[in-house]
Amino acid sequence: MNPDLDALQPYPFERLAALKAGITPPDDLPHIPLTIGEPRHAPFEGALQALVDQRHEMARYPATGGLVELRRAIADWASQRFGLDDLDADHQVLPVNGTREAIFAFVQAALDRTRPARVAVPNPFYQIYEGATLLAGGTTLTLDCRAEHDFRPDLEAVPAATWRDVQIVFVCSPGNPTGAVTPLADLERLIQLADEFDFIVAADECYSELYLDESAPPPGLLEACARLGRQDYRRCLVFHSLSKRSNLPGLRSGFVAGDAELISAFRRYRTYHGCAMSLPLQHASIAAWRDEAHVRANRDAYREKFAAVTEILAPVMDFPTPEASFYLWPSVPGGDDEAFARALYAERHVSVLPGSYMGRPGFDGDNPGAGRVRLALVDDLDATTQAARRMRDLIEKTVSWETTP
Question: Are 228 and 253 in contact (CB under 8 A)?
Answer without folding.
Answer: no
